[in-house]
Batch of 2 targets.
Target 1
Amino acid sequence: MRKAVLVSLDAFFDADIKELQPDSTLSRMLREGVFCRQVKTVFPALTYPAHVTLVTGCDPEDTLVGQNQPWQPDTPNRHRVWYWERKHIAVPTLFDAVKAARRKSCTVLWPVCCKNPAVSWCFPEVHPLPGENIVLKTLRYGSPAFILDGERRFGSLRQGISEPGLSNYAAAITCRAIRRHRPDLTAVHLIDLDEMRHHHGTFSPEARDAIRRNEERLDRILQAMGETPGMEDALLIAVSDHGQSDISVTVNLTETLKKLDLADDFGVQSNGESAYFFARREGADPARALSLLQSRLKENGIRRLYGPEDLRRMHAVPGPVFACEAADQVVFSDGLDENKREKATHGFGPGHPGENCLFAVFGKGIRKGIELPSMPMRDVAPTIAGLMGVPLPSARGMDHSREILL
Ligand SMILES: [Zn+2]
């Protein structure tokens, strides 16, 4: 079995490739490894559903993780729980496949991976709800000895969960895990670029700086691999989950439902640049709602509607009865989230310019300078499993490892 280090660059997409420094590890991965710059993200293009698909090879219709948060129609955003725990994923993951092969995994801030018995060293991605203590919660959701070791050594690198400190910290504990534990599969999630895009805009100078910092973090991770006996032959794999686009107008879809006298029948959950609608009661008629909305697209900031058949075709999670896609510059609110005043976001559907994510593989035994054609995100996990030599028969995507290995 071959070891792998999987690095997720949150919110990196194909438009960013031209920004890379020619001598960075990421540039080298594209020049001297195998890559795809058109990995089509899932619907909706959100961090949690995408990261779950990246490690399962299944779409939200099978993973049952179709949003960052379960639908909590009457709970304000900061009180809502997220899909933090492994138990929310309905299918096996790469970490389960590694464990079944009697090998070990390490995850650092990897989404939907808390309380995961298949992971030996877990720094969990979880955040405190009002009244909760983040330290105690982190220890409870992850691997306490691993967390305390990281905190002792690198705690000074971060200030709470703000960026870029958190991603610097994540990269540091990843390098330490590689050197100390030599995990068979290491997976780290770097949030810096996503955060900068939300706050400063898709192509802001701050976003460019975050791309640079991510390149430096990848340099350090590759260096740690090269300096660690037993890790020199491991594969370095870079992935991403979605792009972003700029927003300037917020549309509250709960108000839209009220105006159209649909609020008793349907509730809405915002995905940012799209939204899900759920039936609140039996007998609610989605066809009537769709036809009412269809005649009022523009005034409600809607680019297009997705009916039940569209959702099935997009492999969307079961539950929502229909959905809509935001018009240019529009972000949807469900009336429950605080006004975040973001400059860019995601959550869109297929065909959006931010849908093209990265998959790049680099290491010994890999073909050089090969670009793979467009693939759905569900192909990534079976391909990683194929490269590592662990079975993942539950994956619905295609294994491209034979196109990648020498
Ligand atoms: Zn993301």
Target 2
Amino acid sequence: MELFETINTRYSAKNLKTDAVPRDMLEKILDAGNHAPNHYRVRPWRLFVLSGGSRNKLGEVRAASQLDRMPDAPKEAIDNIRALPLRAPVIITVGVEKPVEKKVIGEENIAAVSAACQNILLAAHALGLGAIWRTGEWARDAKVKEFFGLAEDQTISGFIYIGYPEIVTESAVRPSFEDRTTWME
Ligand SMILES: Cc1cc2nc3c(=O)[nH]c(=O)nc-3n(C[C@H](O)[C@H](O)[C@H](O)COP(=O)(O)O)c2cc1C
């Protein structure tokens, strides 16, 4: 797919089939993420590729965390939370490495990881897959971070759900860039 076509036709695919995504496609997608620009070449993204039972484990962690917060939560609500990671055959959890060297800036690492996320979304779309970038409270959840071996003060930029789309959807019509743009001469 041509670059502008890929950018302009990408959409968030909410409904994904359960079919597995071939490993070579996932490697292409991860490689695209890894090509994102990043200051000082620190490659601050940390990519966790979940498929199969690891999605159930993530669901268990989320359910346990919700029960910590709301011990009286109805079983059905907890079951729903547990099932959330099963909405896609693959989830790429994208974490952000905190700066080690003094010159590296945390916000810039987050910016670079956002660029990696967009590359991942575009690569998935170009390969005919569906993808959606999800966050929610789970991206800030201490137990979820622990599950991925991330420190509590580290950022999870998102959980990118990937699979074959149930329905190929048209990209939403966007307002023009004009009202967000100032031409300065
Ligand atoms: C940082 C970030 C977090 C997002 N979190 C969610 C989310 O938790 N749930 C969701 O349904 N979509 C989420 N989205 C996707 C947006 O809702 C989606 O991109 C937006 O509605 C525009 O639709 P489009 O991607 O089809 O153009 C997120 C997008 C970004 C960039």
